[in-house]
Amino acid sequence: MAEAEWYVAHTYSGYENKVKANIEKTIENRKLQDQILEVRVPLQDVIETKNGVRKRVQKKMFPGYVLINMVMNDDTWYVVRNTRGCTGFVGPGSKPVPLTEQEMKNMGLIGEALNVDFVEGETVTVLSGAWMNTQGVIQSINPGKQTLVIVVDMFGRETPVELGFNEVKVEN
């Protein structure tokens, strides 16, 4: 069986999440979980200022595109190509071209092997930002995004906060 690779599908602008949901539903209905492994709409955190208020929002990194990790064959090509809102694959003519390893690293789809020094339940101190010098307990760790969620005490309530690995240090 062929190896799964990352492909880029072009969508109508604003239809990225609908295309993702439709492909995932089709995967489930046709039992293609072993051939189409993952569908992503990459997002990035951006700080926007509206009416003088700074707000963190998530924006699409590649508007009009969906990334798909799949084994390319006639069935999977047909499923993606005939999904409502999808205009086709990126590549010359009708032949999809998989992303190279360097392109995947640049997009953050794959990264170098990362040694995580954190353990859930461990106490950490925030090094920068609005939560600087605040202590919290690690609730979850996401090595792929290199983030962790810590629980901090705010006004007598436990509040989850997502931070990058480099924004915290472990307390001894």
Sum up the structure in keywords.
172 residues, alpha+beta, SH3 type barrels, 2 domains, five-stranded antiparallel β-sheet, four-stranded antiparallel β-sheet
Model description:
- This protein is of the alpha+beta class.
- It folds into two domains: 103 residues, Alpha-Beta Plaits, CATH 3.30.70.940; 48 residues, SH3 type barrels (Roll), CATH 2.30.30.30.
- It contains three helices and eleven strands; from the N terminus they run βαββββαβαβββββ.
- The chain has a five-stranded antiparallel beta sheet, with no helix packed on it.
- The longest helix has 15 residues.
- The termini are far apart.
What CATH first level of the largest domain would be assigned? Alpha Beta
If strands are numbered along the chain, what order do they take across the biggest sheet? 10-9-8-7-11
Q: What fold name stands as the CATH topology of the largest domain?
A: Alpha-Beta Plaits
State mean pLDDT (0 to 100 scale). 86
- What's the shape? elongated
Largest sheet: 5 strands, antiparallel
How many H/I helical runs? 3
**Quaternary structure of the protein:** single chain
What ranges have pLDDT less than 50 throughout 5 or more consecutive residues? Answer: none
Find the structural class using helix and strand composition. alpha+beta
Judging by the overall fold, what is the CATH architecture of the largest domain? 2-Layer Sandwich
The SSE string, one letter per element, is EHEEEEHEHEEEEE
Number of separate strands: 11
Q: What's the CATH superfamily of the largest domain, by name?
A: NusG, N-terminal domain
The count of domains is 2
The whole-angstrom Rg is: 20 Å
- Helix share, percent: 10-25%
Content of β-strand: 35-45%
